[in-house]
Design brief:
With about 140 residues, the chain is an alpha/beta fold. The strands form two sheets. Strands 3-4-6-5 form a four-stranded mixed sheet, covered by helices on one side.
């Protein structure tokens, strides 16, 4: 997102490991136009032009991504969000409920590295989609 020369990018995550990796990557890129929020997504309430998110896929907790979508619908009019393809009907319904339309859809196999204790394989390819939503 920073490579598109925005005025400001907000990074929001509560995972310390992810934030540490983010900070290391940002130092390598020598970019300055960002703020990092070490918090739960429910606590982030700034209005933004665009949301790009990769929420939990809801494997362990069904529709864990619902909170992320609801927050994104609240803070922006344009959203790109990654989800498992099996969530397609849910994604369509929640977008409609929040007066958003799906304008684009990209399907691909996402290589998910073993980062959680419950992951069984070193790398698992998961069928995912990236949905683009726009406020109606």
């Amino acid at each position: 997102a920073l490579l598109f020369d925005p005025e400001l990018v907000y990074f929001v995550d509560k995972d310390e490991r992810a934030l540490k990796k983010l900070k290391n990557n940002l130092q390598l890129m020598d970019l300055k136009d960002y703020e990092i929020f070490n918090s739960d997504i429910k606590e982030f309430n700034k209005k933004v032009d665009l949301v790009i998110q990769n929420p939990p896929f809801g494997v362990k907790n069904e529709h864990a991504d619902k909170i992320f979508l609801q927050r994104a619908f609240h803070i922006s009019n344009v959203i790109y969000s990654f989800h498992k393809l099996t969530s397609e009907k849910f994604i369509e319904a929640i977008a409609k409920d929040h007066n958003f339309k799906i304008t684009h859809f990209f399907k691909f196999n996402f290589p998910l590295k073993r980062t959680m204790q419950y992951h069984k394989k070193k790398i698992q390819k998961i069928e995912v989609g990236c949905w683009r939503f726009k406020k109606i």
